[in-house]
UniProtKB/TrEMBL annotation:
The chain crosses the membrane at residues 12-31, 37-60, 67-92, 98-117, 129-150, 170-202. The keyword Cell inner membrane does not apply. InterPro entries: ECF_trnsprt_substrate-spec. This is ECF transporter S component. The keyword Transmembrane helix applies. Pfam families: ECF_trnsprt. Keywords: Membrane, Transmembrane, Transmembrane helix.
Length: 206
């Protein structure tokens, strides 16, 4: 391995560690990781953490993106079981929802980035980063809803201390849908605002 390859590897590990630290901080400090709609108690807390995963995937590639997504999902899963502070958090007690849906963000954004973002500059880069932000939120919402539906109807998910209720099931899915709409709108602006200057900085210091 050449010196340049070693430097590149160290740089990738360093940036990955910074993204992991950012995700950890966002999950622990609500106003850094969630959109404050004022209804956390029922789970209406749209997250912006999937955009950190998406940006990390764009900057570092799909492999590192999967690591970031898995880390985010694992934290969601652990928090759902150890600190279920809202009704909405209960659905993430299912690992398919908590981890599987997050991993799909990295997969989808990784494919999109390879085909439409890498090598682009200027307004075309910004517009495609906006699409990536929308896709990150859409992917997260779609797979959370799908995995939650599968959990209820195929895996027959039940929650500790809460009786089985179709009303609760649809309430949870509705919460995710409301969150998802807010997240898609935010993602269109958030991802370009962060990713564009970050890509320029990393390119300049390559």
């Amino acid at each position: 391995m050449t010196t340049q390859q070693n430097v590149s590897k160290v740089r990738t590990l360093t940036v990955t560690a910074l993204f992991l630290a950012t995700i950890l901080l966002q999950t622990q400090v609500p106003f850094l990781g969630y959109i404050p709609l004022g209804a956390f108690i029922i789970g209406v807390a749209p997250t912006i953490i999937q955009f950190t995963v998406a940006i990390g995937t764009i900057v570092l590639g799909t492999k590192q993106g999967i690591i970031l997504a898995g880390f985010f999902g694992l934290i969601s899963f652990i928090r759902a079981w150890t600190n279920p502070v809202s009704i909405g958090a209960l659905m993430f007690q299912n690992p398919l929802t908590a981890i599987g849906a997050r991993l799909m963000i990295a997969v989808v954004i990784g494919v999109f980035a390879r085909k439409f973002i890498i090598g682009e500059t200027g307004t075309k880069l910004v517009s495609r980063l906006a699409i990536a932000g929308f896709l990150a939120a859409f992917t997260n919402t779609f797979f959370v809803v799908l995995s939650t539906w599968l959990g209820f109807n195929v895996m027959h998910t039940t929650f500790v201390g809460i009786p089985d209720s179709n009303l609760l099931h649809w309430l949870l899915i509705s919460i995710v849908g409301v969150n998802g709409i807010a997240e898609m709108v935010v993602g269109i602006f958030y991802v370009p605002a962060i990713a564009a200057p970050l890509l320029a900085f990393l390119k300049h210091h390559k």
